[in-house]
Each structure stands twice: as C-alpha cells, then as structure tokens.
Amino acid sequence: MRRTLKWRVILIIIAILLAAWHLYPTIRLHFLSDEDKDQMDPLALYKLEQRAIKLGLDLKGGMHLVMEVDKADLPQDEAEDALDRALEIIRNRIDEFGVAEPVIQKQGADRIIVELPGLQDEARAKKLIGRTALLEFKLLKDDELLQATLRKIDETLAQQGIGSEVGEEATEVVEEETVPELFEEELVKEQEVSPEAALTDMPFTSLLVRLGPDLAVQEDNVLRVEKLLADPVTQAQIPTGARLAWDSGFEEYNDVKYRRLYFLWDKAEFTGKTLKNARVEIGQGMDLRTANKPYVVLELNKQGARDMARVSAANINKRLAIVLDNNVYTAPVIEEKIPSGSARITGNFTMEQARDLAIVLRAGALPAPVEIIEERTVGPSLGADSIRMGVRAAIIGMILVVVFMIVYYKFAGVVANLALLLNVAFIMAVLAGLGATLTLPGIAGIILTIGMAVDANVLIFERIREELRAGKTVLSAIDSGYTRAFRTILDANVTTLITAIVLYQFGTGPIRGFAVTLSIGILASMFTAIVITRVIFHAVYSPRPQAQISI
User: Fold this and answer.
1) 159 within domain boundaries
2) Are residues 483 and 537 in the same domain?
3) Which DSSP string corresponds to 480-502?
4) Quick one: 275 and 418 in the same domain?
5) All residues at 6 or more sequence positions from 476 whose CB lies less than 8 Å from its CB, including other chains
6) Strand 54-55 versus strand 437-438 pairing type
7) Digit-coded pLDDT (tens) for 447-486
8) Residue 113, helix vs strand vs coil
C-alpha cells in the first residue's frame, strides 16, 4: 500500500504543478495594468494572451458582422463555389488570428455571418477579414521613364488648366523648409522652376518630393494626388504596362507625414500563389529598417523559388516591389541572384499589424471582394455583469458547500473542501491548456460540477461511517469506504459524461461551452474525490492507526 501511496502522491504533485503552470499566464495577465501591458515586449504579451483562458462573446463582448461576397465579376464556374471558398479563407484567417470560439457560418447564397468574441477594434476586424490579399512581385520602372512620364503629366494637366486648382497649400510644400534632410531635392527645384510657375506649369510634380530614391507626397496632399491620378487625362499619359502605386503606409519626419509613390510595371513577375508560409520575426543588428522591429518573412514553394531565382538573376541592381492589394510594402534592390525562395516585408509595423499581415498571406486571397453590410459591436459591460454574477453565484455556492461539509463531516469536510478547490483549479487549468473558451454556460457547468464533486465525497464519507460502525479500524474503514463507493461514483459520472459528449457533438457554441466545462469537471472531480482525498486520509492516519477519524 505504501508503494501505491507513493505513486499517487507523485501523480498529485505533477497534476498540481501542471495546473499551476497553465494557470500562471491567466493570473499574471489579470493583474497586469494597461500601463504594464504597453511597456511589455509585444511578442511576449501576445504569447501570454495566447496561453491565458479565453472568454466567449457573452462574457468579453465582441463583434457581429454580416458579409456579402460580390460574385458579379466571376466566371460561372468560379461563382458557384466562391461562397464556400471565401468562408474557408475567412475561417482560416480568424483561426490563426486567435479569436476565441468564433461563429462563422453561411447565410443564403452569398452572405457570411461572423461573430468575434473579444474583438472590439472594428477597423482591424474589417482589415483582417475583408482584404483581398492579392500578393504580387513587380519590378520598378527606370527613373528616366519616370521623369519623362511626370513631364508629360504636367504638360497635359497644365494645358487643361488644372494647375490653377492646386491652390496655395501646394505653395507651402515648395516654399517652407519642412522636408527632412534625408529627402533629396524636390522635383520642382530639379527642373529649376519657380514655385509660382510650378502651380500652373507643374500641377502634378509640384505636389511631390523626393524621399531617398523614391517619390513621396505630404499627407495633406495625398487626396489631391489621388484625384489627379484617377483623372483619365493623367491615366492617358502613363505608358502602357506601367502604373503609379502607393506605399502601404505613411512615414513621419519632423512631425510631417509622407507617403511614398512607386512607378511599377503593371504585370507581376510572379504572385502569392506560390507562397508556402509567412511568419513574423523581430529584426536584429543595426539596420534601421528592421532593428528591434517586427517584419514578415515569406517562404515560397519550389515553383516560387524558381521564379524568384529567375527574376533576381535577370534584374541585378534593379528593385523588386512586394505588392499586396495594390499597395507596395517594400521595394528592395536586387543585389544578387536569390535562390532560396524567401523574401521579407519590412515597414513601420506594430507586432499586431505584422501578425495580421502574416495571417492574411498564409490564409490566401479571397476569390471575390467581400463587403461588410451589417456590423454590431457587443460591449463588454454586459459580459462584465455576467462574469460578476456568475462568479458571485459560484462563490456563494462554494461557501455554502464548504460550511455544510465542515459542520457535518468535520475534518473529513475540510479534506473535501480542499479537494473542491483543487477541482476548480484543475478545470480552469485544463481550459487554459486546451485553448478552450469560457462562456456563461461554461460557468454554469463549473457551478454544477461543484455540486457533483461534493456528492462523490458524501458517498465516500457515508460508506466510511458504515464501515466504522461495523467495527473496522480507521485505515480499513477508509479503504473499504473508497472501494465500495467507487462503483456508484463511476456509474453516476459516466452517465453524466455521456450526456455532456452528446451535447458537445450536436450542440451549438453556448451549449458546447457548457458541455466542455462539465466534461472536464466530471473527470477532475473523480480525480480529486477518489485519489486526492484518499491520499490525504492515509497521510494523516497511517502514522496514527489507533486515532479516531473526525467524520
């Protein structure tokens, strides 16, 4: 018996240590203030959140979206399964994003319903789910052709009288010394034209500056440049097979924001169809573009590696732009042949932005544009009330059970209460370890488990009392009580477990949450009631076999 007891003690210690290991992230995250979270390393905070217990939409709040797939421009054979493909891609994006227990389902012939618990950032949700994610690799046009194209655009717009519409704000870009030192000379100055003449003779290039080797536009002038680029007159001056494309974001210098503008070949050298993986890494070394900043590493399959090697070998010292949804994320110079089939997307990313970008790249491009036609944000206040009321109910129930067990069973009741606390800890630890989600029905399952755990102890203690009344010694009564009560406890718990499995198999989200916590609670309660309490009794009374048990 001593050898068996030894292994049971080891098993209990291992179980408690594992529970503590899985509960630590949740406990630590709970006690972190918003300031502490802001000061933490983004990657470390993300990993901590991933290991913590997740809350469902009814507890944490979140978003409800109705999305419509635009199949108007798709061929008939592609339109038939466009909704299913879009549903699968959106599901993959959300699964990798880490949203707890999302609801993703079809509605009718062209709509998808998405519920995202805990996600309050509306803009981020739209960007993550709705972006097309068309990845392309395009070469930049040479600078001479760019200069010629800009001159043609200026001449044509000036002839149309568009220069007078630029206004005085453009004069400020030329006259004021707001451009940082790393900017090269402005195009206006390169062509030796006065600012006043630029407003009428150079209506387009007067809005541009140089940022290193690239064109750039001050934030205040971006909408004006977009309007000019959309004008058919401007489009007609851009050579066939070329296009002007924006950078994916803004860069700030001296408190002024700028956005780069690239001159690209319109045809992609190859696309993201050959993408095998995309992951986030943190830059090392002294490179200012990546040092201590997150960036996305792309890994291409064999075909993609061959394409990359072919394009890089034929275009040494030229620039290859990585374009996602018509925006340029980076345009590095090809210094040598790249046989590895890997590339990286750099930028002023936050960890969240880099991770979202990697997610949409891994999940693939949507087969058709997706429009969000209905959106609702479920505030966390209702969830906070549900958590507070659920926790209050659990605490009140536990207090009543604890008091009853101590009053009725004395020391044995204290042992049962200790097992009850461990039972709840094991349930929460398993939820965290499995990445499961705690919902309001899940809290109900935990409360039900509390009663079931005590029920097993009551059966055991009553059996022990019967054995003591029959004249057996303490240790013999304990062993007989556990042995005789085991079958009854097993039968009761197995039938309940079968019911929980059926509920999980055929139920929806909230019912599944109840079934998960109930199933975990049943297994945990059997372990605590049959194993842990028995070990405690033996540890207390084995050295004193003649002592009277307080039961």
Assistant:
1) yes
2) yes
3) HHHHHHHHHHHHHHHHHHHHHHH
4) no
5) 467
6) parallel
7) 888 877 888 888 899 999 888 888 888 888 888 989 888 8
8) strand
DSSP helix/strand/coil, 346: coil
Is there a single domain that holds both residue 296 and residue 437?
no
> What number of CA atoms fall less than 13 Å from residue 322's CA on the CB side?
20
Distance from C-alpha of 42 to C-alpha of 48, rounded to nearest angstrom: 10
Tell me: do 7 and 147 sit in the same domain.
no
> Among 343, 146, 357, which Cα is nearest to 261's?
146
User: Which residue is associated with the tokens 């599901």?
Assistant: 91
Show the domain range for 448.
2-27+380-541
> CB burial class (10 A; 0-12, 13-18, 19+) of residue 263?
buried
pTM: 0.53
| Distance separating alpha carbons of residues 177 and 420, to the nearest angstrom | 72
Distances (CA, A) of 140 to 315, 331, 333, 462: 10, 8, 10, 83
* Each residue's pLDDT tens digit, 56-94: 767 777 788 888 998 888 888 788 888 888 888 888 888
Residue entry with tokens 């750099």: 346
Q: Are 70 and 122 in contact (CB under 8 A)?
A: no
Please report the beta strands in 199-311, taking only residues with DSSP state E, as ranges in sequence order: 208-211, 214-218, 242-246, 251-253, 256-265, 270-271, 275-282, 294-300
Is residue 269 a contact partner of residue 320, using CB atoms and an 8 Å limit? yes
| 227-270 confidence digits (pLDDT tens) | 999 989 899 999 999 999 999 888 888 889 999 999 999 999 98
Which ranges in 380-439 belong to alpha helices (H)? 380-409, 411-434
Task: Give the pLDDT band of residue 223 (cuts 50, 70, 90).
Answer: very high
Cα–Cα distance between 461 and 551 in angstroms, integer?
A: 7
pLDDT of residue 508: 65
Strand spans (E) along 85-223: 103-107, 111-117, 135-139, 208-211, 214-218
* Residue 550, domain member (yes or no): no
Q: How many CB atoms lie within 10 A of CB 485?
A: 22
Domain count, the chain: 4
Domain assignment present for residue 549? The answer is: no
Place of tokens 């704000």: 169
Could you report how far apart the first and last alpha carbons of the chain are, in Å?
23
Condensed to tens digits (0 to 9), the pLDDT of residues 277-329 reads: 888 888 876 666 667 788 889 899 999 999 999 999 999 999 999 998 888 98
Beta bridge mates, 90: none
